[in-house]
TrEMBL record:
GO terms for cellular component: nucleus; plasma membrane. Keywords: Signal transduction inhibitor. Pfam families: RGS. The gene is LOC107665045. GO terms for biological process: negative regulation of signal transduction. Residues 44-160 form the RGS domain. InterPro entries: RGS, RGS_RGS3, RGS_sf, RGS_subdom1/3, RGS_subdomain_2. PANTHER family: REGULATOR OF G-PROTEIN SIGNALING 3. It comes from the Eukaryota. This is Regulator of G-protein signaling 3-like.
Length: 172
């Protein structure tokens, strides 16, 4: 299993001034869940996202599906809600909009036109909940789409010591 999970150690871009690869190393070494803990990730997407190791594994899965931007956007919104300073909030809101909402941005998330317009209007009067609608839509997308596939993925099944139905190791 160790060899099959080495892709989790893949270095990522240093976006926030700290080294995500070293954070990943720390999580991988210290917080590895038991199969029983990993099974709890199947309770809900909220449970998965609240577990540090689960978050890392889910991000790695999303990377294989080329949809990591959904989780990045959701996490950026969570961080945004914790900002107290209005000037920092305005700056971060513009960054989130440019990075995830703008048409043709490199990490554009899949949102309907109503939600995009709603965010554009909110950008005129920035507040802590100005991305809530978009965040809930992206959460719903992950919950309906990526999360069920994650629960059927080899990486999740390895963590829970389960086998994929129909695999060579499955006698049925």
């Amino acid at each position: 299993m160790k060899n099959r999970l080495t892709f989790l150690r893949k270095k990522t871009n240093d976006r926030h001034g700290s080294n995500p690869a070293s954070k990943l190393e720390k999580v991988l070494k210290s917080d590895k869940p038991t199969p029983e803990e990993a099974l709890k990730w199947a309770e809900s997407l909220d449970v998965l996202l609240s577990h540090k190791y689960g978050l890392v594994v889910f991000r790695s899965f999303l990377r294989t599906e080329f949809s990591e931007e959904n989780l990045d956007f959701w996490l950026a919104c969570e961080d945004f809600k914790r900002i107290k300073s209005l000037s920092k909030m305005a700056s971060r809101a513009k960054k989130i909009f440019t990075e995830y909402i703008s048409i043709q941005s490199c990490k554009e998330v899949n949102l309907d036109s109503y939600t995009r317009e709603h965010i554009k209007e909110n950008m005129e009067n920035i507040c802590a909940d100005c991305f809530d609608l978009a965040q809930s839509r992206i959460f719903g997308l992950m919950e309906r789409d990526s999360y069920p596939r994650f629960l059927r993925s080899d990486i999740y099944l390895e963590f829970t010591n389960q086998k994929r139905p129909g695999s060579a190791a499955d006698p049925s």
